[in-house]
Amino acid sequence: MTEKAFTKNSGGSQPKAAGEASKSERTVIVSGIPDGVLKDEVMADILMIHFQRAKNRGGDVEGVVYPTTTKGVAYITFEDQKVTEKVLKKSEHQLEDKRLPRHYPLKVSLYSQDVFSCISCVLDLSGFGDKYVLEDLVQELQKNITALSFSPLQPNGQISVQGSFPSIQSLKDNLLLKANSLSKTDKKAKCMSSQRSNSKTQKHGVSVESKNNFIHNAVGEKQVVLDTDVYYYMKHILHEDSLAKKSVVSREVTDGEITILYLEKVNASSDPSKLERAKKKIEDLSAELHSKLQKKRFHLDGSKHEMQMYQHACKRVQPQYSQVLVIPYETHIDVIGSSSDIFGFAQEVKTKVKHYLQKTPQEMIVR
Question: Where does the RRM domain lie (predicted)?
Answer without folding.
Answer: 26-113
